[in-house]
Structures are given as C-alpha cells and as structure tokens.
Amino acid sequence: MLVATATPDETFPATATTIQHKLGITGGFAFDVQAVCTGFIYALATADNFIKAGQVNRALVIGAETFSRILDWEDRTTCVLFADGAGALVLEASEEEGTNQDRGILTSHLHADGRHHDLLYVDGGPSSSQTTGYLRMEGREVFKHAVTNLANVVGEALDATGLNADDIDWLIPHQANKRIIDGTGRKLKMDPAKVVVTVDKHGNTSAASVPLALDEAVRDGRVTKGDLLLLEAMGGGFTWGSALVRF
C-alpha cells in the first residue's frame, strides 16, 4: 500500500500503516510518498515498478489530503483554491503482449527541481519550526512553470510510446486551476472535450485530485475499459510527472 499525502495525520508512523490497520490488512508493506500535488503520480509509478520487479502482485495506491489544515485563512490568494479529498486505484500484475494496447501503465515519467522551493511551500515543519506552518504560493510564477513542465512531461509519455495526442482518449490532469489545465491542453492541441475537469467541484486537492477526477469520469461513463488515459500533475518542490495508462 502506498499513500501519497503532504498532510499526514502524524509526523510518524506513515498514514499508510494507519489505513492498512483500518482495512484489516496485516501482510505486505505500507508507506507514504511525499511529492505534494504530484504525489499520486509518483506513488503510481512506484507501485508499477514494484509489480514489474515481481515483488508484489497487487498494490493499493491512494492520494489523500486535508489541505484545510495548512491554509492561512487570511490569505485569500491561497485559501480559496485548496481543498480536502481522497481517491485510490488498485493495480494488479497481469501478462500482456508488450504493446500500446496492453492494459495498465504503459509509461511514467517523473521530475523534480528544488531550485523553485520558494514559489510553493509550507512555512513550517517539525525540524524547522516545530509547527505545521501554512501554505505559501507565488501563483503567477507557478502558472508559468506548470504549463511548460506539464506539456513537456506529457510529450515525454507520447514520445516513449510512439503515440500522439490524437490517440489519447482522456487527459486527466492535476486540478490546480482551470487556466493551467486549459493552457496545457492548448499546448497539446487537445480537444477540450477530452479533458476531465473537476476543479470547479473539488478545488485543488493536491495528491487526491487525479484519482478524484478519474473516479468521476469512470462513474459518469466517460472513461471505459480500454481507454487510453494521460495522467499528469505538478506540485511544490517543484515536482512533476505523467503516467500513460490503458484503463
């Protein structure tokens, strides 16, 4: 079990072990992944590699956040944007043909660049201030990096598989804000109708936003078995990544 979260219940143990206990699971392993808004993509790629290495047959990947705990309610540039939420996927090993028609994760690409720390961070922590701290963000600068980085990492996924944007059935992006989502879609020349948007309903739920958006698209019938999905996200750090998935 892997849990992507930047807002754990406790400094330790890992939130994943708490969930493991509540689900009545006593075997296997459980740990948290912290890559902020990209956390779910990082966790998905990690679980995929455990499966490919033959170390596990099945993995539960969760993205869960309570960002309301780290918001400065006097800062209207951030507190109106972020929210709480959770979503999950189950990955299972299977024998496939090794083509782009295989079901599962076809390719994943992860990045980080710590030089941009001051553009999106929380001003506290157990080893620095002994407090939780509050989220701080330079929105305009984050926007500039997000559109470029997300378009590039999506391009990496397509280049790695020899596919193009027209092959994607659904783009399921991190729900940071509509302008970033629209900007990424335009760079990819994607039909807006093929982009799943839930930020108007859920806000920015960080690591939970991609699984929440996927869940909504599955429940309303848009995403069906065999569809090609492109998942992408960028978060504080900066971290960013993508995963191309045959559902």
Structural features, described:
The strands form three sheets. A four-stranded mixed sheet has the order 2-1-3-4. The chain folds into two domains: 91 residues, Peroxisomal Thiolase, Chain A, domain 1 (3-Layer(aba) Sandwich), CATH 3.40.47; 143 residues, 3-Layer(aba) Sandwich (Peroxisomal Thiolase, Chain A, domain 1), CATH 3.40.47. With 247 residues, it is an alpha/beta fold. Helix 3 packs parallel to helix 4. A hairpin with a 3-residue loop joins strand 9 and strand 10. It is globular and about 50 Å long. It is built from six helices and ten strands, in the order βαβαβββββαβαααββ. The longest helix has 23 residues. Helix content is 28%, strand content 24%.
Structure characteristics:
single chain, 247 residues, alpha/beta, Peroxisomal Thiolase, Chain A, domain 1, four-stranded mixed beta sheet, 6 helices, globular
| CATH class identity of the largest domain | Alpha Beta
Rg, nearest Å: 17 Å
| End-to-end distance | 20 Å
List the strand order in the largest sheet.
2-1-3-4
Overall tally of domains: 2
CATH superfamily of the largest domain: Thiolase/Chalcone synthase
- Apparent shape: globular
Tally the beta strands: 10
Average pLDDT across residues? Answer: 96
Question: What is the name of the CATH topology of the largest domain?
Answer: Peroxisomal Thiolase, Chain A, domain 1
What profile does the largest beta sheet have? 4 strands, mixed
Task: Classify the beta-strand content into a percent band.
Answer: 15-25%
